Amino acid sequence: xxxxxxxxxxxxxxxxxxxxxxxxxxxxxxxxxxxxxxxxxxxxxxxxxxxxxxxxxxxxxxxxxxxxxxxxxxxxxxxxxxxxxxxxxxxxxxxxxxxxxxxx
Length: 104
Known about the structure:
This protein has helices spanning about 10-30, 40-45, 50-60, 75-85; strands spanning about 35-40, 65-70, 70-75, 95. By secondary structure, it is an alpha+beta fold. It has a domain at about 35-95: Arc Repressor Mutant, subunit A (Orthogonal Bundle), CATH 1.10.10. It has a 4-stranded mixed β-sheet with strand order 1-3-2-4. Pfam families: HTH_17 (PF12728).
């Protein structure tokens, strides 16, 4: 059985483009990969605690964070791992974010 397409090339390209965009959009908008950086306020909301509690954990180095300039930032995947066992996290997990082109 052969399907016939009664479309000119512009219409065909437009339809293919729409289908490709439709298929790729969920992948491109996937913010759940755990690699996104969160602020203190976002982590506090995520953990359902006050921001002051998060700052206390930063000060005592009991929560995994990175510094972006002078601002603490958190990777969701690190927070999730820390939640599994908050007592086993090492202080080597705390490091500043690398600047573009910088080697450590």
